[in-house]
Amino acid sequence: MKEKRQFSRRDFLKVTAGTTTAAIGAPMIIPNTVFGQDEKTLPPSERITVGHIGVGNQGGHLFRSIQRVKEAHSVAVADCFKSRREGHAAACKGKAYHDFRDLLARDDIDCVVIAVPDHWHVPIAVMAARSKKSVYLEKPLSLSIEQNLLCQKVFAENKQIFQYGTQQRGQSNCWLGCTLVRKGILGKIHTIEVDAPNGGAGGSTAEVPIPPDLGEDGYEMWLGPAPKKPYTHDRCKPNGTYLIYDQSIGYLGGWGSHPLDIMVWGCDADLSGTINVEGTGIIPTEGLYDTIYNWNMKIKLGEVNLIFKHGSDRTRFIGEHGWIEVRRNGTSASNPELLKTPIDDNTTQIFKAKQNHYADFINGVKTRTAPTSTLKDAVRSDNISHLCNIAVRTKSVVKWDPVNMKLINPTAEQSKMISRPLREPWTL
User: For the chain, N or C: smaller number of CB within 10 Å?
Assistant: First the structure.
């Protein structure tokens, strides 16, 4: 008689994976127990192993946040900057990698947290999914609509878990505002106002030596699929990482992803009919930064008006019976009594995480269930940012079919902007 085998958490993940759906300084070396991640709490076989790709400003924050999730165990770090990768790897007693592909090749890693420059988001994410690893991906989603649609296809084919870095979905006030809108207390929504912080001009174009901490090989990896350009003081750090068109579409997506994500969380206006996008914005002609700023977009989502402009971070839903506005620092309404409307958690249309954004991701990987910020919604909101970028740069009205996910009667110039070329040898 054969002895029964007791499956560990890792065994379960291997079986179910195929059947279920920039500051440079080194970080302080802090033991995991300081973060509440005592190795005695859970045995290694019951913890989700995590690799970190990109541990600069936001990546460092995500790294520290993951250390506080008791069911997570960080084991590897990849970054182009030597001090970053070695410092963070030492902090989690893991291994440091210059090339993220070596990290992805490990079969003992369950998921990766990706916080790299925008132009690397989808290329690395799809490689991770094809390596059978779940992904937490910082926003914005991509450099093009083509990349968005490919990312969605690859994750569906490989049945991997995806969490988008729109942390506002972990805030109770954001969930409340969006839930009340979906509950219908405003009646029919006719207008949505979305504001996002602006970009701007500037940035030095003067070539300077590559710092030793990055080096020639590190800079080549940092650029990756982006066009080869000289190293400048402002290219590989904020705001360059957000506002250079070779690497990003600017705050239209980089910050717009947050309030636009709240919009798609709170209603399905963007799925209700043809999307028409037009508007204006400024594209700098001097300096390193050349993404759109001071934008003012007039958009039709079926019959719903969407006004998307630069400003604070907010989403206001306006209906027949008043308005509800969702911000990071609170949710307000035209009539405060609207916010007291009873909610039955068992019938609400949107999922409310029972833990923070990072624990929600780890739980999703462990249980093979979708976390709060889904890839489907990430594609919806990011596509709107790209449609705005196309409209401003082509000075034309852009029409989009949200069901078939394609442009309607596009001009040649509009069609060309659906995709972005990748520098060889990188491909999707």
Answer: N
HSE-up of residue 61 (Cα within 13 Å, Cβ side) = 10
pTM listed for this prediction: 0.90
Give the neighbor-by-neighbor strand order of the sheet with 275-282. 330-333, 322-327, 314-319, 189-196, 304-310, 293-301, 275-282, 398-401, 406-407
Helices 121-130 and 145-158: angle between axes, nearest 10 degrees: 20
Predicted pLDDT of residue 348: 72
Q: What pLDDT does 42 receive?
A: 75
Q: State the sign of the Cα–Cα–Cα–Cα dihedral 26, 28, 31, 35.
A: negative
Tokens of 254: 């980089």
What three-state secondary structure class fits 264? Answer: helix
> Position of tokens 């009646």?
187
pLDDT tens, 20-62?
333 333 444 444 444 444 444 677 778 999 999 999 999 999 9
User: And the tokens for 151?
Assistant: 């990312």
Query: Which residues does the chain have with pLDDT short of 50?
Result: 1-40
From CA 301, how far away is CA 305, in angstroms rounded?
6
Residue 326 main-chain phi, psi, to 5 deg: -110, 125
* Residue 389 near residue 265 (C-beta atoms within 8 A): no
Buried b (16+ CB within 10 A) or exposed e, 43-67: eeeebbbbbbbbbbebbbebbbbbb
